[in-house]
Design a protein that fits this description.
With 285 residues, the chain is mainly α. 65% of the residues lie in helices and 9% in strands. The protein has 13 helices and seven strands. It has helices spanning 10-22, 46-59, 80-96, 99-104, 108-112, 118-121, 129-150, 152-173, 183-195, 206-225, 232-251, 253-256, 259-282, and strands at 2-6, 28-32, 36-42, 66-68, 75-77, 106-107, 178-179. The strands form three sheets. The chain has a three-stranded antiparallel sheet, covered by helices on one side. Strand 2 and strand 3 (36-42) form a beta hairpin.
């Protein structure tokens, strides 16, 4: 005997299914014209399934900056505006104090000498107003969607690490490479958003959603990340890092998508920004 749990959307069905699987509860995603989306679970496990979903909701309550932007349950986190203000502050400061750019720019040779913090500080520097405006506007949208899906703190930390991954890629390939800008982080968001379609559910259609999402993300990367005159290698490294981090986060959904994890990740992001810039401006002392 089975029981059906009604669900608002396919996205919610996928999320609830993952939550149930993490507790050893088998479920099947079901759709009908009359009843819409739902989850089919065995009758003996129904009460356990409902309690698991309620616990999942308590751990994943969205804070006021997150807003639903579609009937499919897609969330946009307006906290991404804080990131825009942050890179705007660094853009202004680097214009007033040119030594900041010298201290924080991505310099492969300097990284090889031990100045690893440049992999992170370069994300906050931009060459001119056009460079800054492009990353700020596109980044606002993509980072907002990333934070909406993965959580505010987890999302921005993952995107930040993906951006650093883009700089690591250029350093490994071209040791004397110089670059700056948040475009690797922006492409990291594209990779993270593409990876959200990957599911480790046993649902027979799960692989189709995963392939479709990854293909869509790759096409968006090609459209945005391979423009002539841009740092294509950093873009590629950021995108690939984003996909990898997104898959890892999908594996750890129950662990990471909760308030404690997001607060911890947010504090880690802030601490990393402060530490790397302190090292940059103090010469590593």
């Amino acid at each position: 005997m089975t029981t059906r749990i009604p669900v608002r959307s396919r996205r919610q069905a996928m999320d609830w299914s993952l939550a149930l699987v993490s507790q050893g509860i088998e479920s099947t995603i079901d759709f009908s014209e009359e009843g819409g989306w739902g989850l089919i679970v065995s009758e003996p496990e129904y009460e356990h399934a409902v309690r698991t979903i309620e616990q999942y909701h308590r751990e994943n309550r969205h804070w006021p900056w997150q807003r639903k932007i579609s009937s499919q349950g897609i969330l946009f986190d307006w906290s991404s505006l804080a990131w825009v203000f942050l890179i705007a502050l660094f853009f202004w400061l680097s214009g007033e104090y040119p030594q900041m750019r010298d201290a924080g720019i991505m310099d492969g040779a300097a990284v090889s000498r031990g100045e690893w913090w440049r992999l992170f500080t370069a994300i906050f520097l931009h060459a001119d107003i056009g460079h800054f405006a492009a990353n700020a506007t596109i980044g606002l949208v993509l980072l907002g969607l990333t934070m909406g899906h993965y959580g505010t703190g987890v999302g921005i930390l993952a995107a930040y690490l993906a951006g650093a991954g883009g700089n690591v890629t250029t350093w490994l390939v071209f040791e004397n490479h110089h670059s700056l800008g948040a475009s690797g982080m922006v492409m990291g968001c594209v990779g993270l958003l593409a990876a959200q379609s990957v599911s480790f559910s046993r649902h027979p259609q799960a692989w189709k959603y995963a392939v479709g999402g990854l293909i869509g993300g790759t096409m968006l990367f090609i459209l945005m990340g391979l423009s002539p005159g841009t740092d294509v290698l950093a873009h590629l490294g950021g995108f690939a890092s984003g996909v990898l981090l997104g898959i890892l986060l999908t594996l750890a959904t129950r662990l990471l998508q909760n308030n404690a994890a997001n607060v911890s990740a947010g504090l880690l992001f802030c601490g990393s920004v402060i530490l790397t810039w302190w090292l940059a401006l103090s010469g590593g002392k």
